[in-house]
Amino acid sequence: MNRTVLGAFAALLLAAAGMFWWQGRAASEMGEAPPKLADLPADAMLPDETGAGLSGTLPPEASEATREQRRFDRLDRNRDSKITRVEMLSPRIAGFRKLDADGNNLLSFEEWAAKTSNRFKGADRNGDSQLDRAEFVTTKPKLKAKPQCRCAPVPKVAAGKGRAAAPKVVVPADVSEDEGED
Question: Of 111, 138, 157, 174, which residue is the least packed, with the fewest Cβ within 10 Å?
């Protein structure tokens, strides 16, 4: 019982200290009072509901030079203000490696056209080397599903047991000690 009363008192004391600290900060951060309406010149009055005669600043626009600078900076990896052939071709290396089936760094027409040819063969259900509308619909690129959340991975199944191992839960030994003192 004493622990409960002492804990409640400590919580109230901390809450009161927090309130005093918060109010003290609010009082010290207050700026000067706004000017009175009589101190403002007559032409500085508020506009009417139509907003006639008002003009605001235009939002900044990205100029063509700015877009080109960003595009240039994406390719200029070593920031020497010059783009070499290697820097220019580097974004395309991964795509090239996917197409180069035999790995000889030479891309033949067959390797280049393999993906399209395989998609055509897969879509041609009746084997007449022509796609009708129903067959062509199946060639539409499939969008990759984005994960809905970044959840914890599912535990792996233990070998030979046929079910996942239950996660270990650690329970402190002194939990039941305070419950009997009320």
Answer: 174
